[in-house]
Specification:
about 475 residues; alpha/beta; 7-stranded mixed β-sheet; 5-stranded parallel β-sheet; 22 strands; about 35% helix; about 25% strand
Length: about 475
C-alpha cells in the first residue's frame, strides 16, 4: 500500500499531524505499537495525571475547606480503587475519541512497531510476529519520549517507579520520595500528598521548577510547603536502594553532607528522553544528536529530505501542545502552505493547586540578554474572586520592554492560571503592549482581573486594586 504520508506514533503530535494532513487532501497512515492510540500523553501522562489531580483535589477540599464554606462532611474518605477506575475510564474515553477521529478523517491505522526499511518504505512488525511493509512519499516520526533515570538507579516498577507506575499504584504510599522537583514530580507528589501520603521532594538544582521564573519557583515552594510537602533543593542524589518494602535514598546537600531519606515508594521524575528505539534510523542515515534527539531544520525536516520529526524526539520543550503545533506545521508544509511556530510563545503549565503557567521570557533570560525591561506584579490575594473562592495564593507578573511597552513574558501562580495564560499568549502573538491589556475591560469578579492589574503595574506602575 502506498501513502502520501506515514506517521509513526499516535500521540498528540502524530494523530494531529495525521488529521491535518488528511484535511488537506493527503492519503495518510498512522502506525502505533500499542493497542490504544494517544501516546504517552493520553495513556500514561497528561490525561490520567489530570484525572487523578482533579479527584484528589476534590477530596482535599472536602477535608480542608468544606467546613469554612458551611458544608459539613463527617469523616471524608475515598476509595482509591474507584479513583483509579475513574482515571482509567477518562483515558478509555479519550483514546476512543482519537480512534473516532482517525476513522472520521479516513486515516488508516496500523498496530505494530514501525521501522524504516529505506527512506520510503516502513516495516510494521505486529505483536504476533507477522509483519508488512507500506510505502510513503513522506514520513513523520512522532514516537515521543520515555521517562529518564539516573545511571545508578534501578527502576523495579514496584517500589522504585517512574510516572507510568505512579498512575497505577494499588495503594496510597505512606511516604513517597520524589527525585526531581519539576512538573511531573510536583504534580504526582501533589496527588499523593492530598490523599494522605508524606511527600519528600529531592531536587538537584537550587530551586524547584528550575527552568521557570525565579518568583514562580519561590511562590510555589512556599505554597507546597504550606500544604505539607517537604522540599529539599540543592540535593544531589547519590544512591537509591530498596530493602523489602522500604526505599532508601542518599543525597549530598549543598554543604557536602550526606543526607538519608527513607520511604515506602520512590518516584524518579528527573525528566524524559526521546524514544527512537527500533525505528531503524541507521538504515536511512538520519542524524541524531548526542542527547538522542533527531536533528531537524526549521521545517522539522531531517537530513533525509522526505522524513520529518516532531514532538519529544526533536529539540525544544517536551510538551503535548508543542508536538501538536509541530504536527500541523509539517502537514501544512507538505501540502504547500507556509505555516510557522513561535517557540517563544508556547506556554508552560504545572497543574498543582494553585496552578502555575508561563509564556515568553523569564526575568533572568531578559537580564542575560541585556534587554531593558520593566515588571508589574499583582497578588491574587487582592482579587474579590480569589477571596470569594478562598484561592488567595499566587500572583501574576508581566514583563514588558522598558522602551516600547511590548509584553515579553508573563508568569502566573494561582487558581485557573492554566487557562488565564492563553490571554497573554494571544496578546503576545499580536505583539500587544502592557497598556493594551490594562485598557481592556475585564469581567468582575474574575481571576483574569489579575492579568489586567499586573499589566497596568508593568505599564505605569499604578495598579488600581493594590
Amino acid at each position: 500500500m502506498k501513502y502520501d504520508i506515514i506517521v509513526i506514533g499516535s500521540g498528540p503530535g502524530g494523530y494531529i499531524a495525521a488529521i491535518r494532513a488528511s484535511q488537506l487532501g493527503k492519503k495518510v497512515a498512522i502506525i502505533e505499537k500499542y493497542s490504544t492510540l494517544g501516546g504517552t500523553c493520553t495513556n500514561v501522562g497528561c490525561i490520567p495525571s489530570k484525572a487523578l489531580l482533579d479527584s484528589s483535589h476534590h477530596y482535599y477540599d472536602a477535608v480542608n475547606h468544606f467546613e469554612e464554606h458551611g458544608i459539613s462532611v463527617e469523616n471524608p474518605s475515598f476509595d482509591f480503587g474507584k479513583m483509579i477506575g475513574r482515571k482509567n475510564k477518562v483515558v478509555e474515553t479519550t483514546t476512543g475519541g482519537i480512534k473516532y477521529l482517525m476513522d472520521k478523517n479516513n486515516v488508516d491505522i496500523f498496530e505494530g512497531l514501525g521501522s524504516f526499511e529505506d527512506a520510503t518504505h516502513v516495516k510494521i512488525t505486529k505483536n504476533d510476529g507477522t509483519s508488512e511493509i507500506i510505502e510513503g512519499t513522506n514520513t513523520i516520526i512522532a514516537t515521543g519520549s520515555k521517562p529518564s533515570t539516573l545511571p545508578f538507579i534501578s527502576i523495579d516498577k514496584e517500589r522504585i517507579i517512574t510516572s507510568t507506575e505512579a498512575l497505577v499504584l494499588k495503594e496510597v504510599p505512606k511516604h513517597l520520595l520524589v527525585i526531581g522537583g519539576g512538573v511531573i514530580g510536583l504534580e504526582l507528589g501533589s496527588v499523593y500528598k492530598r490523599l494522605g501520603a508524606d511527600v519528600t521532594v529531592i531536587e538537584y538544582a537550587p530551586k524547584i521548577t528550575p527552568t521557570m521564573d525565579a518568583d514562580v519557583s519561590k511562590e510555589l515552594n512556599k505554597v507546597l510547603k504550606k500544604q505539607g510537602m517537604k522540599i529539599n533543593a540543592n540535593h544531589g542524589v547519590t544512591s537509591v536502594e530498596r530493602n523489602g518494602d522500604e526505599v532508601v535514598v542518599k543525597a549530598t546537600n549543598k554543604k557536602g553532607e550526606e543526607v538519608t531519606f527513607t520511604g515506602d515508594y520512590c518516584l524518579v521524575a528527573v525528566g524524559r528522553k526521546p524514544f527512537t528505539t527500533g525505528l531503524g534510523l541507521e538504515k536511512v542515515g538520519i542524524k541524531v544528536s548526542d542527547r538522542g534527539m533527531i536533528e531537524v531544520n526549521d521545517h522539522l525536516q531531517t537530513n533525509v529530505a522526505n522524513i520529518f520529526a516532531i514532538g519529544d524526539v526533536v529539540r525544544g520543550a517536551m510538551l503535548a501542545h508543542k508536538a501538536e503545533e509541530e504536527g500541523v506545521v509539517v502537514a501544512e508544509f507538505l501540502a504547500g502552505e507556509k505555516p510557522h511556530i513561535d517557540y517563544n510563545l508556547i506556554p508552560g503549565i504545572i497543574y498543582t493547586w494553585p496552578e502555575v503557567a508561563a509564556v515568553g521570557k523569564t526575568e533572568d533570560e531578559l537580564k542575560d540578554a541585556g534587554v531593558a525591561y520593566k515588571a508589574g506584579k499583582f497578588s491574587m490575594r487582592a482579587l474579590g474572586r480569589s477571596r470569594a473562592s478562598g484561592d488567595i495564593d499566587g500572583f501574576v507578573k508581566v514583563l514588558a520592554d522598558k522602551n516600547t511597552d511590548e509584553i515579553l513574558g508573563v508568569h502566573m501562580v494561582g487558581a485557573r492560571v492554566a487557562d488565564l495564560i492563553m490571554e497573554m499568549a494571544v496578546a503576545m502573538e499580536f505583539r500587544a503592549s502592557a497598556e493594551d491589556i490594562a485598557r481592556i475591560c475585564h469581567g468582575h469578579p474574575t481571576y483574569a482581573e489579575a492579568v489586567k492589574e499586573a499589566s497596568k503595574a508593568a505599564w505605569d506602575g499604578k495598579p488600581l486594586n493594590a
